[in-house]
# Entry
Amino acid sequence: MSFSHLGLSDKVIAAIDTAGYKTPTPIQEQAIPHVLARRDVLGIAQTGTGKTAAFVLPMLTMLEKGRARARMPRTLILEPTRELAAQVEEQFIKYGANHKLNVALIIGGVSFDNQDSKLTRGVDVLIATPGRLLDHSERGRLLLSGVELLVIDEADRMLDMGFIPDIERIGKLVPFTRQTLFFTATMPPEIQRIADTFLHNPVRVEVSKPATAATTITQLLVATGRESHEKRDTLRRMIRSAEDFKNAIIFCNRKREVALLHRSLLSHGFNAVALHGDLDQSARTAALEAFRNGEAKLLIASDVAARGLDIPDVSHVFNFDVPHHPDDYIHRIGRTGRAGKTGIAITIVAPIDQKSVGAIEKLTGMKIAWAGEPPRAEEPSHEGERPRHEGRQEGGKGRHGGGRQRGRGGRPAPRHGSPQQTPPAAAPDQARSAQPQTPRPQQPQPPRERTEEPDDGSHLPAFLLRPVSAKA
Ligand code: AMP
# Structure
């Protein structure tokens, strides 16, 4: 199947040629003809499947006819985070090179006035996070009554971040007759309810991540002590001894931990940047750019901040904290081993984390191998003492978080992950973690010190030592 059979315009086909894409991905192949036929689409797909182009390409084709009016965008795309919104804008710039369309980004954390003047000029494509969009609308600076097509992207993440009430409000401001494209990675009951309200007789398109994604990931656990400094010590050792290391994303459960770990790694001479919701927009963009272009080798992130980001070619994923929710584990490790490349995912396990590891193994249906000695005795879990949603709220906090808290929207909704909803990327037969092929099993570790060892970074590999300008 080639792109030329999907009904896309010549201009769009030319842009795809320039981008170098030869064949549509399954979600593109299945969704694009329906979008062009003006049908509502329910797309169940996660990042990495090419879902963004599945709506960007037909939208470009459809927008070739007609013109935008001041303050009345023709199409609206809702994204849960500023980074995702910016990524969608990039795709419009990439594929829309031959189109003279006005694309505006309405996200928190950047100047309101610049956004306002863009709206005045007339916008064909408005890409927005829900909170900032409602700000503009409530100030009377934006009319949504001209929206012909609405895209709700990453709906399940919108739910996680407490944006559903905002989405429902926005749904009342767009015309009833508009076309709606609704994308989600999972389908918990609350998302099904929202989909039912927003979509009219939708075509359902469901794809799984390419099987190659997980087959190339080697997963390992490494035991550590219960103290934070012991975990940081273990992480540094793992980074230094990592084989075929190119770059890594390090996941923490809480944004506070992201900031702390970032400072610690910088002080130990590592070339690291951080991504979490308390950073201002320019710091987030700079961090992401430094990591993308290879200037920084380590990116420390929370789940919320990293969600959906398209960061190619990550050789390693480190879970500094074991995720409380096993589906987050799947998302995290999916950041490596992309497009047939091999990747290594190493999870640092403190005694308190053993219950969470058990939940991950139950979900993936396999035992993950230990690099080195497994912990000796399981200690009683204090899981319940930790705030369940800490670290998830950053995107939903305040106006700078890309959304705001309103009524019940202020509180993150209950989690919805379940084994049945997990993308097949982690299907037991697709991952080969039980007997890792390339791990370098660590020798049994000597007892760890209670205090952090002094570390001047002198024994770090040179490529990890380049100075980096990221701000915490
Ligand atoms: P997405 O799932 O939208 O985040 O896309 C994941 C990645 O796949 C992005 O880097 C896209 O540029 C890329 N991509 C999208 N469509 C295709 C295609 N038909 N062929 C190859 N790569 C693609």
